[in-house]
């Protein structure tokens, strides 16, 4: 009897197990389907967002508010006409649509929420990342005779009361534009409760979120407090949101839509292109003195009496560089986060008044820098992402007149940058800047456009970048054998348990440095050292080499290694495109390194 029961129990066990395993399989299948579905939704939403017909829908001048818009534009804002995307965005937000608006720096995003604020009877809440940005906006508005308010921890008591009374009871005066930082919005429960009352009274007309890319970790300026903005759609579900930014790739936009609970909302963008900017990459001299000579020369001659910004990698770099340039009689000052607020403000002001020709700054000199006549932006080290490159360069030429954006590129700076980035995403971003710098033939605008998922015809650049201006053809070089030599050096160093920095690797390759590391049977390269650097950089971006970091108490060091699992078979062919204009060929052709010339082909591209 007992045995029968235990047999029976086993049978049940067996059935239960088999069902559980089926459930597990079904779960897996379910998860796969869910992932697939969410990918498709993502695409679907983006397509919906970019629906061109929506743009047509909102570009008209026959909305109930249309005649009012024009008179406000002319009489209040003292401007002649709308730029095309401005009108589309304004009509859409007045039609109570949620939308994201992408326009380049200086494109005129502020107008797209400032003007609609004056159309309705209620309040536009403007979320802006920095107090200094808010102050700038308020100064601009008050010059136009438009009253706005901002509320934060430093707001005087009486003013706070006035604002709170208006929000909670609808008392006069009506506040058309109310500025807050996301920090204040997330921190102050009281403020949120007043906003809710304002909403209940029907006075919360619209929410504008400036620099909206700060919501996304994929953006280049992620700010944790922007995440709280997801509450807005929950709290005020029928209040239209307009998010504004100058830089966002599709993945950032999608992320922002998700974060703000406005999946599939309209997205309008005007072209990223800034036709008046000349983009250029210059090979950075190896010696500090030579680099200073170069900077001194252009600041004293080409950019004489012209205003600009020099971006440097670290606080120490800005201090050193500014001091050295001042030693050469130039009026420049460093600007970074460690300066006290008063001094920072003073540097900024004196630069605005042209008492300083340039600020030598870290990325802390950023959002809200709004000097119209910046004629040059120089990156003393490569920027950390294409977004930063675009945004920082974009501070030049806001007045629409010609300006130059120069990146000083040296491969070793890539490693300095790599030492301070701390995520895979950031590494990928830095690498895309490396690719941009190495490219000596493609239109810079095309490279930027591709990065920002925009279509671009190279001839639209009007020779306004170094590569279009040179317009030389490209020669492809076979560097397979060179790669073999590099691998041989790395393998020997591995055997000896020595880590190779870029400097060490180059030294050994050029038969210098540590004798023990040299590999007898590889020839002395006949290319110049900086050309050898170009080759190594290509091997890195093509995935034949990798850089890796090691940390000690004092510093982070970056070393070069063979990419794991990558080997050179007999069929491997590694080719790199080099613009004829940089005369790489003369040197490489003479090089013993590229003796097996039979396979090195010269391809001319139009
Ligand atoms: P951003 O897009 O960088 O936020 P802003 O809103 O600060 O740009 O505007 C940049 C400049 O462009 C401002 O000086 C502004 O007055 C000007 N501007 C905006 N719209 C127009 C327009 N329709 N016509 C002429 N100038 C405009
Ligand atoms: Mg702006
Ligand atoms: Zn070009």
UniProtKB/TrEMBL annotation:
UniProt xrefs under InterPro entries: DEAD/DEAH_box_helicase_dom, DNA_helicase_ATP-dep_RecQ, Helicase_ATP-bd, Helicase_C-like, P-loop_NTPase, RecQ_Zn-bd, WH-like_DNA-bd_sf
Residue stretches making up the Helicase C-terminal domain: 294-442
Domain of life, source organism: Eukaryota
Primary location group: nucleus
Catalytic activity, EC: 5.6.2.4
Coiled coil region boundaries: 2-43
Record GO biological process: double-strand break repair via homologous recombination
Domain Helicase ATP-binding span(s) in chain numbering: 90-266
GO cellular component: chromosome; cytoplasm; nucleus
One MF annotation (Gene Ontology) recorded for this entry: metal ion binding
Enzyme class of the recorded protein, top EC level: isomerase
Signal peptide coordinates: none
Compartments it resides in: Nucleus
UniProt cross-references to SMART domains, sorted A to Z: DEXDc (SM00487), HELICc (SM00490)
Reactions mediated catalytically: Couples ATP hydrolysis with the unwinding of duplex DNA by translocating in the 3'-5' direction; ATP + H2O = ADP + phosphate + H(+)
Pfam families membership: DEAD, Helicase_C, RecQ_Zn_bind
Membership in a protein family: Belongs to the helicase family. RecQ subfamily.
NCBIfam families attached to this UniProt entry: recQ_fam
Protein name: ATP-dependent DNA helicase
Species per Swiss-Prot/TrEMBL record: Pyrocoelia pectoralis
Biological classification of the source: Eukaryota, Metazoa, Ecdysozoa, Arthropoda, Hexapoda
